[in-house]
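Page 37, top half.
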Amino acid sequence: MAYTRELDLSSCGGSQKKAVSNLKEAVRLYLEEAEKIGTLSQILEEAGYLKRKSKLLGPQFITIQRVSLPLPLEHAKV
């Protein structure tokens, strides 16, 4: 699975390379549609992107950490 937290989009594929390729396509389609309906600026602003002069600057991350939490078996669907 590939995921972009800035846009809260994910995709999957049979390999890491395919999942990333599918995610890029999903992001492209999502942003194209947002532009068509006039919400692209709002989406990018909410995702932390800033427009400076003629450039679009991405959000600055301080750290990224993967966290796993135990899930009691009574909550797991098998």
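Page 37, bottom half:
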Amino acid sequence: MNDKNNPPTAAIAATPETELFAVMCKALGHPARVMIIHYLKNIDRCLCGDIVKLLPLAQSTVSQHLKCLRDAGLIKGEVEGPRTCYCLDKAMLGKFTMMVDALGKSIAKQTGVHRK
């Protein structure tokens, strides 16, 4: 019987899916990265310079944020000559959405608190 006084004792191990979920969550852990995702969802694709114009950050800082999002699989970058054009990776964002939803449902089931 599992309750607050008797937590489960079985060890849990990270799976590739939980590792990916953690990487994606970490990538979205900075307001500038969330703003970049919001911007890219409203357009098809854009150049790094377009994003630099929107954020009050240096070009090198924006590039680091884009790299973090790209490394997490949330965006794609395509080199076009000396510039890189970015867009959302819709398949990965869909997977992330499903992971968030599954976690929310699991928490709701455990706590009895349901979303409205």
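Margin note: The two ends are 29 Å apart (CA to CA).
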